[in-house]
Amino acid sequence: MTRTMHGLVTAPLTLSCAGRPVARYEIRPDVERRLSPRPFLHPVTTLAGTPVTESAPADHLHHLGVGVAVPDVAGRNFWGGRTYVEGRGPTELDNHGEQRHREFKLCDPDGFVQDLDWITDDCLPLLRERRTVAVSQLADDAWALDFTFSLTNPSDDALSIGSPATNGRPGAAYGGFFWRAPKEAAAPAVFTADGAGESAVHGRPADWLAMAGDGWTLVFAGATAETRRDPWFVRTDEYPGVGSSLASADRLPIGPGDTAVRRVVTVVADGTLDRKRATTLVRKAVAA
Question: Is the pTM of this model over 0.85?
Answer without folding.
Answer: yes
